[in-house]
What does this fold into?
Amino acid sequence: MKKINIRLNGKQFTANFDDNQTAGAIIEKMPLKLNMMNLYSRELTYRFNQALPANEPQTMGYQVGDIAYWTPRHSFVIFYKQTGEVISEMQKVGRINDAGKLAQLQMGSMVDLILESSNC
It folds into this structure.
């Protein structure tokens, strides 16, 4: 597991990234500044131009704070609201610590996100 610093619309969070190829590919790109779309009133999404490695995609539910990669559209996703939906072809990447604060944020149509590797 790798600790990551996340700044989301000026608010600071940390996340634990899993030890898999997809998480590693994202970490290699850091620091990253992404302009994320707010989709379906449940998730923040950024679509990479090219596919990332994803050897373990599965159909899964999610929790607020989960970070995943949706393989069909090369999408980096942070879930901030629970709708109970089960989504196919998702690769788990990590989880935001203190996800309760994430659920309380007011999300606009576009959200600035900065990801940086942590020394902690």
Q: What stands out?
A: The chain has a mean pLDDT of 90.
